[in-house]
Amino acid sequence: MGMVDDMLKEGPDPSSKLIGRAQGLTAVPSMEQNGGILTMLNFVFTDGPYNGSTLAVFGRAVLGTVMERAIIGGTGRFRMARGYTLSKQLPSTQGLLVLEYDAYISH
Whose CA is closest to 47, among 16, 4, 91? Predict the structure, then answer.
């Protein structure tokens, strides 16, 4: 089990604008090596047009692949949101784990 409280930025560049936090829980439910990580995340927006809103994302992640996870709700501008995210790991020269998310949302 682990806790997540990571920066949510507009882009992968370390100098890109901070727009919120990715907060939540992770767990390794599989006994297999590279079996994936169960993630329960809230994207908490603190700046920009979605300031004060959240997006709830749930699902399985395997680093090194394109990861699809369900959008199961949200608050503010994302109230009752449904959809999915596609994310992938990007190379980082800073020693950081950098993930790029694309969100596909319906209300």
Answer: 16
